[in-house]
Write a structure and sequence with these properties.
The structure is a single chain. Strands 2, 3, 6, 7, 8 and 9 form a six-stranded antiparallel β-sheet that branches. This protein has a four-stranded antiparallel β-sheet with strand order 1-10-4-5. The protein has 209 residues and is an alpha+beta fold. Residues 2-22 and 50-62 have low confidence and may be disordered. It has a domain at 64-205. The protein is 22% helix and 31% strand.
Length: 209
C-alpha cells in the first residue's frame, strides 16, 4: 500500500511540474517607449565662391547704324541733279552694304540750330520766287547729297549737320516690284512711328539723340 501511495504522489508531482513548465499564450504588445533625445546637428558646409562677372556688351542697336556728317566737313563740287545745276557731295561709307540695298533703307535728317528735321530740305520765300533744296540718294558704299537753289548751285550753310540712319531688316522679303525700303517704311507706319520725326525714330530704336 505504501508503495502505491508513493507512486501516486510521484505521478502527481510529474504532472504538476509538466503543467507548470508549459508556456502560456503571448500577452498584448506593451505601449511604445518615449522618444530618445535628438542627435547633435552636423557641421554646415562652406558656401561656394561666386563666379566672375561677364564683360559688358557694347552699346548700339543691331538693326541701325548712325552716320553723322558736319556741314563744316563737306567740300561741295559742281554737278547736276536731273539736269538741274547743283552742288554735290559723296560720302563713302561701307555701312551702306548689300544688306541695306536688298533688305534695308536709309533715313536722312538735317539739323538747324538744335532742331532735327527730315531730308529732303526745302525752303521757299513768301513770294515764291526763291527756292532752296537739299536731297540725298544712296547706293552701295555711298551716300550722296545734292543742293540747289533757284539761282543755281547751293551751299546750304544754314544746315549745320546731317545724320543718316542705316536700317537693316533681314526679315523683309518684298514682293516683286516692291522695294525693301517701302516695306520697312510700311512697318514703321504699322508700328505708329512717324519716320519724319527724328526723335520718334530714335526712341523706337532706343538710341540717343
Amino acid at each position: 500500500m505504501k508503495t502505491l501511495k508513493y507512486l501516486f504522489l510521484v505521478t502527481l508531482t510529474i504532472v504538476f511540474l509538466a503543467a507548470c513548465t508549459k508556456e502560456g499564450p503571448a500577452g498584448p504588445t506593451g505601449p511604445a517607449g518615449p522618444a530618445g533625445p535628438t542627435g547633435l546637428t552636423g557641421a554646415t558646409g562652406s558656401a561656394g565662391s561666386n563666379g566672375t562677372n561677364g564683360t559688358n556688351g557694347t552699346n548700339g542697336n543691331a538693326n541701325v547704324i548712325t552716320i553723322s556728317l558736319l556741314t563744316a566737313d563737306i567740300t561741295w563740287t559742281a554737278g547736276s541733279f536731273f539736269g538741274r545745276t547743283a552742288n554735290t557731295y559723296a560720302l563713302t561709307n561701307t555701312g551702306v552694304n548689300s544688306d541695306i540695298i536688298d533688305h534695308g533703307t536709309v533715313l536722312g535728317y538735317y539739323r538747324t540750330s538744335s532742331t532735327w528735321s527730315p531730308l529732303p530740305f526745302y525752303w521757299e520765300n513768301n513770294a515764291g520766287t526763291s527756292r532752296q533744296s537739299v536731297v540725298f540718294t544712296y547706293a552701295l558704299n555711298t551716300i550722296t547729297l545734292w543742293a540747289w537753289a533757284t539761282s543755281g548751285a547751293l551751299i546750304p550753310s544754314v544746315l549745320s549737320e546731317y545724320r543718316f540712319l542705316l536700317i537693316t531688316d533681314n526679315t523683309v522679303t518684298p514682293a516683286k516690284g516692291v522695294s525693301a525700303s517701302s516695306e520697312i517704311l510700311d512697318k514703321f507706319k504699322k508700328a505708329g512711328v512717324d519716320v519724319n520725326d527724328y526723335y520718334e525714330v530714335m526712341d523706337y530704336f532706343g538710341l540717343d539723340y
